[in-house]
Amino acid sequence: MKAVVKILDARTQQGRCPRWHQKSGSLYWLDVAGQSLNAWQAEYDRSQTLLLPEPSGCFSFFSSNSQCPDSIILASASGFFQIDSLSSGLNSGSKVSRLNRVSGDLIKSNLLDGRCDAAGRFWVGSTNFYGRQAESWLYSLDATLQLEQKAGPVMAASSIAFSPDSGTIYYADSAEHVIYACEYDLEEGVLANRRVFHRFPFGKGMPAGAAVDSDGGFWVAMFAGEKIVRLSPGGVMVEEVHLPVKYPTTVAFGGEANTTLFITSCRQACSSEELEQYPDSGGIFAIETGVMGMTEYSYSA
């Protein structure tokens, strides 16, 4: 049984998108409700916070050979932002500038999940918190900042990930408790032949943020399910790791050997009774998986 370690009592209202920054040995993550980007430097056990102009649910680092090294591209419902000066950490001197503005006709709900493919495209998924119709989509942002609808509509697009050979793209409709897998042409950025990868029963949590390991194992946070689940490359459940929080939100690999799975969680969703039962809600957790995670690709512009 894998040990779950709380590395930070962050009390995050709605934690999303943990990402390990190898150069600085830091874990970054977003608090959507708190409208902030956060960083924790493991060596010094030091945390930093940068307030954002609007709620944002996912981000990616720019690639080191791009025009904007040591920067972040940030996704929000109104478009995309850039955050500079990561080399000196998050502070009041970190510049946040708008890269583009996306029409409300294209994005009608929040962008809460995202990940780059091996070619540097930024794939993002939208989630409609209050709608009862399938109005959310999977999008791709290319190097020219053009955003294109790729798959949908669904109720809540999340769990975006890629297989180790980049031949498969995964995404979930969280509200329907299902994860899909599609054949993926990396060179053209085209997906095809969608199939059900795994369907979870209702009442035991819904799939949220995910990550893939180097063996093709698919790790996913089960929101309202108190656990992390690992699926085999064939979509069979092979492992569960129970957590001290009810609402885990997202997972990502990192650490010195890239074998640590970092987990964000949500405090905002807890009732007063749940906060008493799960006082660590909103914390950041880690487990040692014993397997290397896939490389977390960066955005190329």
From TrEMBL:
Coiled coil: none annotated. InterPro entries: 6-blade_b-propeller_TolB-like, SGL, SMP-30. Pfam families: SGL. It comes from the Bacteria. Residues 15-266 form the SMP-30/Gluconolactonase/LRE-like region domain. Belongs to the SMP-30/CGR1 family. This is Sugar lactone lactonase YvrE. It comes from Endozoicomonas lisbonensis.
